[in-house]
Amino acid sequence: MIRPASDDGVTEIIGFVLIMGLVVMVLFIMALTIPPMNGAELENELALGAVQDVSNLKYDMDLLWEDARLKNVTRSVLIQLSTPKEGMISMLPAFKPTIGSATLTAGASDLKIMIGEDNTTYDNFLRLTYATSNHYTENSVVMYDAGAVFTGTQTYQSMLLAPSVGKGSDGTLFIVLPRQTLGETSVLGNSFGVVNYTVGVHNTKEFSGSPVTIKISSSNEQVRRAWENVLRDFNLQGGDNGEFKYYYGKVKVLSVDYAMKVQGAVPW
């Protein structure tokens, strides 16, 4: 029996509709899965880049106070504040992940360090905070605080790089404390932020006694504990949780003034 031509046409139409439906379903699934995958990868890369940038910044700032010839020399660093606009698959708008961003803030930490019988107080330490606003992963924070680098989330950070603390051959404990001399500045955007910083006055003070007392306080529990752990490595005795610690020897503190501010990148 010969099938009418009209039956063949209907079959072709049904087959075409089924194929198109399958294509639409595949594209729909890809639109649901690809942007989060690409977006999460891009956000992780952005956070890792911030860790590297802030770590390099600490290294360069340490070089500034070590070399007196660089006093009053302004340095600048460019830090990326957003994920790239294109994902791995970006032929269609539906496959493009939402652009994440970050806020870069330069200001002062509330960390305080009291040293000696007269409780000489060091505060207003330099702090640079990089906080992301993500769409696909948990928000992350990278922070330079009083010479140390911390990384983690908005609620918890752990120390990645320790502050500049050391012991001389004669047993003297050296502590370098970077201070901020400017007010708070901040930049938020989907491009780049510029960090400008200049090293200024150096002040040195030596403490002696039997023993020298040191007390650390901060509203950020992780920062305070991290500092206490660093000092413990140099044989400081005494309790934790913000209690007085004791060092049986001399303590020399180098306080270094920095003028740091951040701003948006302006193309030439």
Structure description:
The protein has 268 residues and is an alpha+beta fold. It has one domain. The chain has two helices and 16 strands. A six-stranded antiparallel β-sheet has the order 8-7-6-5-2-11, sandwiched between helices. Strands 1-12-16-10-9 form a five-stranded mixed β-sheet. It has a five-stranded antiparallel β-sheet with strand order 4-3-13-15-14, covered by helices on one side. The longest helix is centred in the N-terminal third of the chain and has 62 residues. It starts with a helix and ends with a strand.
Secondary structure: helix percent? 25-40%
Could you give a short account of the major beta sheet? 6 strands, antiparallel
Order of helices and strands: HEEEEEEEEEEEEEHEEE
Low-confidence stretches: none
Q: What is the alpha-carbon Rg in Å? A: 27 Å
**Average pLDDT reading:** 82
Strand order of the largest sheet: 8-7-6-5-2-11
Domain count: the total is 1
Residue fraction in strands: 35-45%
Principal-axes shape call = elongated
Strand runs, count: 16
Number of helices: 2
Q: Structural class of the helices, strands and pairings?
A: alpha+beta
* Cα distance spanning the termini: 79 Å
